[in-house]
């Protein structure tokens, strides 16, 4: 029986060394979770046996369990690197269509703009609108529009924040002076093809607290435009009764193609200060190519384009399980769902018990290399001790055989 006990001890120690070696080999693997061998003593079952007289048959590896403690976060500066700071797994879809889960966030882009893992699995997420508001909890592959530019958008609204000089002289007559540039500014609008449309705004004081506004489109003479009137209250704010008409814009390629745009001048003020333009804005833009992406702590992916626009392109999904120990490792840093793990609970970063994401950061392996080296030495001693048991038993058997 001693041979069997020692042999089981050798097998268990060897299995433990395998686990320790696996941990040490993956100490630099992103998102890797360490494992440990858990032993169980073995007894023979006998009907009616008295527990105090049973002799054990050795040891067996009861389980190899994974330790899902948080790994250290390492800053990489790569926008597509992302780490989960807290609980949760990334959901991925492999090439064969199977679903897996991982903590490794070293993502990449393929030629079609799909966000993929190092082994080529597609990263799953939730659809959002352009402002980052999630539209559903139905996970789908995350994809960025890298193949074609985002289309241009025609200007529909313009706004200006301007300070008019209350001490400016009143114009001698109502006709516009030439050139009309003393109190003026300009901004750029866009047509449906993304072509630039210069728009000028020129102001002429016609009476105390009263100004005429002339406009220019595509370099036209502002003096030829029909002015509209602005009135200011005693505190210098714009009179809400002032009527501001829409501006008719024309495409530079075809002046016959016109379209209206609203003009918001509600932030105009008249004070005793020099003429100053604080802000000009409009909602149109030209076509733009993707120039960069950023993953927010909430998992929302923000894409930046060459036209200066930023748009959201989805939200990284996170899932969790009631029993993470029940997940089955499948290689390449992936785990798969089992009956013991329970079904996945879906969510988003920072919501409920889910951890937040850290962009430009990777989660390192949670292997404690020093502890593993110590475990390796103690396991080696256990292996040697079991081998010594076999040697001692062999000596005992040899003594018995040699009795005369």
TrEMBL record:
- Residue ranges of domain Flagellar hook protein FlgE D2 in the record: 164-285
User: What processes in GO biological process is this protein linked to?
Assistant: bacterial-type flagellum-dependent swarming motility
Keywords assigned:
Bacterial flagellum, Cell projection, Cilium, Flagellum
Q: Could you name the Gene Ontology cellular component terms for this entry?
A: bacterial-type flagellum basal body; bacterial-type flagellum hook; cytosol
- UniProt domain Flagellar basal body rod protein N-terminal: residue ranges: 6-31
Q: Where is the Flagellar hook protein FlgE/F/G-like D1 domain?
A: 83-132
Any Pfam family matching the protein: LlgE_F_G_D1
**InterPro entries registered for this protein in UniProt:** Falgellar_hook_FlgE_sf, Flag_bb_rod_N, Flagellar_FlgE/F/G, Flg_bb/hook_C_dom, FlgE/F/G-like, FlgE_D2, LlgE_F_G-like_D1
Residues in Flagellar basal-body/hook protein C-terminal domain copies: 359-403
Q: Where, per UniProt, does this protein localize?
A: Bacterial flagellum basal body
Q: Its domain of life?
A: Bacteria
The entry sums up its family as follows: Belongs to the flagella basal body rod proteins family.
Q: What does it do?
A: A flexible structure which links the flagellar filament to the drive apparatus in the basal body.
* Official protein name in the record: Flagellar hook protein FlgE
Q: Which organism is it from?
A: Xenophilus arseniciresistens
